[in-house]
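Entry
Fold in token form

___
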Amino acid sequence: MKREVSIQKIKQDAMDLFRGGFFCSEALVSSFRTNFELDIPEQIVAMASGFPVGIGRSKCLCGAVSGGVMMLGYFFGRTKQKDPKVEKNLVLSKELHDWFREKNSALCCRILTKGMDMAAGEHKEQCIRFTGEVAEKVAQIVVRELDFVNADEMQPA
């Protein structure tokens, strides 16, 4: 795993992957997998495939936020019952949730895309932006909490 990443590249890659054919959650997870050079199979991206357009197009929870929570779980979640590190993951996931809701007044796709013609793709640019912003926020949290290096902040010598 890389401990030095460009948060802006993670954000841009997530947006480009969405534009290229992935949905929000898939694009976000794929960007993290590549930029952090995570030793996980590409099937992790497939695990994110059910979240777009508010979980299976139900227009509930924003898929970008779902993908973001998946990545927080990768870095901070638990794999054993009763492991107390779950508490940190819950706190960080709530941080992401609250940040998105404060920024956008909602987390529900139905509200975020209200009045948009989904069939015509009216929502796509907004959703690409949400994907990039969530990728950026999650990367900031990971870098902050794990004391990784944000290459964007490195000063030339």
Observations:
- The helical segments are 7-20, 24-35, 43-47, 63-76, 86-104, 109-112, 124-146.
